[in-house]
Write a structure and sequence with these properties.
mainly alpha, disordered C terminus
Amino acid sequence: FTMGDKLAEAKEMMKLGEKAMNKKNMFFKKSPDWETAADCFQKAAMIFRQPNVKQLPEAIAAFEKAAESHGKNGAHFYAASAMENAGNILRDMKAVAAAGKHYEQAAGFFLDSGKNDKAAELILKAAKSQSQSHSQISHKPSSLSLHCLWQGIMPNQL
């Protein structure tokens, strides 16, 4: 496969994902197929991220749409993984503040799926990325971090 073939495949997956999100039932009411949408966006993200394709902004957008679709389908663990992947790409692109926000969203999804240890790990990743961000240093902890502290969810207790 050439890069052009892979890129075309990824773009087609994005179209199919959008189509699944906007699916209508026989009464023309919106009836999204979140599972199909999530699978399409996930496949597109994986292709966009490949070293020979390397369309990183598109990969981030696809992972975000995958996370949204998984979340709406109640698959919080998969939503968290997709959002973490987007955060990792942003971190590698040195967009650490944006990476931190994605890690916090991923942590929320991990909490929703009962994976407190993974949530705590992501909150630490978010804090680390925030501390590396010189332009947008936030001395205020996020509401999610405060929630985890309130709930007593700390990595050293897991």
